[in-house]
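Hi Y.,

Following your request, here is the sequence exactly as I used it, all 324 residues.
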Amino acid sequence: MKDITMTLSSPDVKLVNGKASLTASVSNGSAAPQRVVLGAFPGSEGAAAQSATWTTIGRPLRTIPAVSIEQYLVEFDTTGAAPGTYPVKLIAYSADEAPEEYSDQGHVISLVVEPQPVVPPKKFPWWIVIAGAALVLVIGAAVVFFLTRPATPKLTAVTVNPAAVTVPVGGTQQLTAAGSFSDGSTKPLAPAWRSADAGIVEVDSTGKVTARAPGSALITASQDGIEGNATASVPAVLTNITITPASATLNLGNRVKLKAFGIFSDGSTQPLTTVTWQSNNPSSAQVDDTGVVTAVSFGPSTVTASRDGIQGAANIFVQFILPF
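Below is the corresponding structure, written out as tokens. Let me know if you'd prefer a different format.
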């Protein structure tokens, strides 16, 4: 079970003039502080991507102390949206993991945009129409021009692609932004870019992100008051490798299974399944690519596991037992 859980002040929201809000209470049940992101995503497959961008979350990335609860204000604004039902999924997840890992704990909120009532046009008395006929003839050309001129499409949503990236420390990734407009068109944008935590991930004016330190940061693209977000994650760097057992004494023909563990820059230790195994004395002890060592002749050997330029070692001694 995940240590990060979430409850909502209300399971549903009712839009008033296209706006609504609720409070999300996010709990950290672990014994250590956690960096937690509260994100908004399309609530179902095929749901409009802009449904998530109608959601604004104040300070989505926060550090929640151990066994504590943090309250987030979640605001919805569907101004300009076409009538329909737009599901939005709220997911509270660790900044060190992808939001998909917590998807089953998300809460789906349905934003129902009601059709605007049609106001019937006012009917003018016929005598006013007759009296104004001459004026209509004079300004008719201008009226036709203004009535037939297409309205300027309005930007309704900003989508950042890709929506989630993983970049190693020192690496870069180019993000792009596209705008959805009120006439149904989609066009590339040149928005203003910002990072929620430039110490972890920087973003320049073109949308190129650069990873600076392990962690996760929300990248936002904004134009004309409309925003879109992407999550950039920077994995911890491998700093050391240990092997268990660290040493072993084998009889001829015996075998031992070695396991490699990586120590990372964030202090975590994880088993490593992709390492390169090598013996400095294969005539005495041979090792296969899964870490199984076979004693083939008397003598000492050093078996190493290496990855990303980091190496760990175990000492193997093959002993000779005289028969009785």
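The longest helix spans residues 133-148.

Thanks again,
Q.
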